[in-house]
Design goal:
The chain is α+β, with helices and mostly antiparallel strands. The protein is built from 2 helices and 6 strands, in the order H-E-E-H-E-E-E-E. Strands 1-2-3-4-5-6 form a 6-stranded antiparallel sheet, covered by helices on one side.
Length: 133
């Protein structure tokens, strides 16, 4: 072999090794990030920058408003007002916005419906936007 062929073969081997090392680093990074995402999904904690709903009673939710879950007598009162307005609605959840109004989610004829209900329970506006308020 002459000197040119020997250098070319060494350069080729070094390039292959560098490529394999790079592929190994990328693969390790994918496993680390993928494992982290899976761990966050399993624990319910969102990864930085993600937009996930909160499971707490009060907090910032997907829609971006600070609202609270409605329970007890208040839930019964809002549910009664909605069903008095339209008896074909089955209320599935109610959340109270900071301004005192309510976000009501229910079903009607098998379809999900969402309403914005005023604080005084007199104004009902069907919300047609996907994902709610």
């Amino acid at each position: 072999m002459n000197g040119v062929t020997l250098v070319s073969m060494k350069s080729n081997n070094m390039a292959k090794r560098a490529g394999l090392a790079f592929a190994g680093v990328v693969t390790a990074g994918v496993f680390v990030l993928g494992g982290s995402a899976m761990a966050n999904a399993a624990t319910g904690s969102p990864s930085p920058g993600s937009s996930a709903g909160t499971s707490s009673e009060t907090g910032k939710t997907r829609g971006g408003s600070n609202d609270t879950a409605v329970t007890g007598d208040e839930l019964a009162k809002v549910t009664a007002a909605v069903t008095a307005k339209d008896s074909s609605i089955t209320v599935t959840s109610v959340r109270k916005d900071p301004d005192g109004s309510y976000d009501v989610v229910g079903t009607k004829s098998g379809a999900t419906v969402m309403y914005d209900v005023s604080a005084d329970l007199k104004t009902f506006t069907q919300n047609t936007r996907a994902g709610g308020k």
